[in-house]
């Protein structure tokens, strides 16, 4: 993998330089978490230990995106093989279409509150990763996160911005007593902490200690499970201790497509990584010689639309999927979808294939182990439900379920919903190139496609691949683009019928990290983008 910057291929300067290391590397969206993972490597841990330490730390130092009540997914490269772990939880047994409609929600599950909370998968997923591949005990691996929760940390700038935005929104929306613990935990001064101010969460520290000491069992079968059960009963929520006890993370076979000599890997459904793979399968039928051209952008957007609309129709709990990933990724179906792409923007419709608020981190060690890991509450802080005294902010993944009984992703007790978070991994032949990911809801598969093409088609180094201007399709013909995209390209896309919305500041374009490994020298090259407070910590 060529990681040198080629100014002819990429005329726009990167915001940061590529970081190199040999003995280990951790890249994520918060510097303190990245350093925590690196410290674990220096203490004798491997990439898996470093990933768990970083993920746990992120629940403390970036609570605007994830928490102990999150779900997660991981791709783990160990001894020349890629392993997948699905750490998403199922709907509570008491949660059904009938019960939701009886509570007054006719069209969709609510975004916030007790109702959209499904079983959090993260704590047991940490324990399972540690059991199968880790070198150090969880008590040591979770110690950096416990120390930050107990002693506090200075809030970083991007974190402060999102924290204040959440506080402003939640102050208007959250009036019930069930939300009181969120404000007590995250805004103890009656406001969001400002950049540079110290924040700590003793309850969070106590919970992490119990998870570390019991390999997460206390969260699912012990005192923490009892606290969760009691709180949800008090406010007529659906989650119960029996649901927590029944949960186990699942080892799954990653899925992939071949793309111009590389293999691009994703977690299979219920994650949306399938969308990125379908889009790449469609795009492989074209030759792209120029990155910054209207033809390249147009075909990328059109392929993504077609793949996304398929994903939204078919992706759900794998036991309920009516088509297989192999069918959606078949050569014949890719050709069929590719034929729909013309010179003008289209309004996508699902095809008929043959039947058959997030944090991301990448970690690598000097032994060749590598981890692509993603963890999220969804929509920032998630449901707004915090179990009092525990620091546990609950996700709201159930919001993505459909209340239409004919929809593939319809709500059922014990079912897993369509999931937005996806880790990515790149290999070539029998060698690992490395982990990559772009967090940010429905931007994620779109970010994966853009990062892979920037790397493979246009030969950009990890930092340049991340810093490159992005676009995001949202619906119909609407495409959001960053203000850094050259205006002549935005205008040319408009002439092709795209409804181009330019985001002059911020925007929904995700935040990503990459680590590539040179198979000959073992040298690691990492990037983390300017859209976040991130850092690549190297050794």
UniProtKB/TrEMBL annotation:
It comes from the Bacteria. SUPFAM superfamilies: N-terminal nucleophile aminohydrolases (Ntn hydrolases). This is Gamma-glutamyltranspeptidase.
């Amino acid at each position: 993998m060529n990681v040198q910057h080629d100014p002819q291929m990429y005329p726009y300067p990167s915001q940061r330089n590529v970081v190199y290391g040999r003995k280990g590397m951790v890249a994520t969206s918060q510097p303190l978490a990245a350093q925590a993972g690196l410290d674990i490597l220096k203490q004798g841990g491997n990439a898996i230990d470093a990933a768990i330490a970083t993920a746990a730390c992120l629940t403390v130092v970036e609570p605007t995106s994830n928490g102990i009540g999150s779900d997660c997914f991981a791709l783990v490269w160990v001894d020349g093989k890629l392993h997948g772990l699905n750490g998403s939880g199922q709907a509570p047994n008491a949660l059904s279409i009938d019960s939701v409609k009886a509570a007054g929600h006719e069209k969709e599950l609510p975004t916030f509150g007790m109702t959209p909370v499904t079983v959090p998968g993260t704590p047991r997923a940490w324990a399972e990763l540690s059991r199968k591949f880790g070198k150090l005990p969880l008590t040591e691996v979770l110690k950096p996160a416990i120390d930050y929760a107990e002693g506090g940390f200075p809030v970083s700038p991007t974190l402060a911005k999102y924290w204040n935005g959440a506080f402003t929104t939640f102050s208007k929306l959250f009036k019930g007593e069930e939300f009181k613990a969120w404000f007590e935990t995250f805004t103890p001064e009656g406001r969001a902490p400002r950049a540079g101010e110290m924040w700590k969460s003793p309850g969070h520290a106590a919970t992490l200690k119990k998870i570390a000491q019991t390999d997460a069992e206390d969260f699912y079968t012990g005192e923490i499970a009892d606290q969760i059960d009691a709180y949800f009963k008090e406010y007529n929520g659906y989650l119960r201790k029996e649901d927590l006890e029944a949960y186990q993370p699942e080892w799954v076979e990653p899925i992939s497509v071949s793309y111009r000599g590389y293999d691009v890997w994703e977690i299979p459904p219920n994650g949306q990584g399938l969308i990125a793979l379908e889009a790449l399968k469609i795009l492989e039928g074209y030759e792209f010689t120029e990155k910054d051209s209207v033809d390249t952008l147009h075909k990328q957007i059109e392929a993504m639309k077609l793949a996304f609309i398929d994903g939204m129709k078919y992706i759900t709990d794998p036991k309920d999927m009516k088509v297989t990933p192999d069918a959606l990724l078949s050569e014949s179906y890719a050709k069929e979808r590719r034929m729909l792409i013309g010179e003008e923007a289209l309004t996508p419709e699902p095809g008929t294939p043959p039947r058959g608020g997030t944090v991301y981190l990448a970690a690598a060690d000097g032994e060749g182990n590598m981890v692509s890991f993603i963890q999220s509450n969804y929509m920032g802080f998630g449901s707004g439900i915090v179990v009092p005294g525990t620091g546990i902010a609950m996700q709201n993944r159930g919001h993505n379920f459909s209340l239409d009984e004919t929809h593939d992703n319809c709500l059922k007790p014990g079912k897993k919903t369509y999931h937005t978070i996806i880790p990515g991994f790149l290999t070539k032949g029998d060698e690992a190139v490395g982990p990559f990911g772009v967090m940010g809801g429905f931007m994620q598969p779109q970010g994966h496609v853009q990062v892979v093409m920037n790397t493979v088609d246009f030969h950009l180094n990890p930092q340049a691949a991340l810093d490159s201007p992005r676009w995001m399709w949202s619906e119909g013909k609407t495409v959001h683009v960053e203000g850094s995209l050259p205006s002549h390209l935005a205008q040319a896309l408009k002439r092709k019928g795209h409804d181009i919305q330019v985001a002059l500041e911020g925007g929904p374009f995700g935040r990503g990290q990459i680590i590539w490994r040179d198979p000959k020298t073992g040298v690691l090259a990492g990037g983390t983008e300017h859209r976040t407070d991130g850092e690549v910590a190297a050794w």
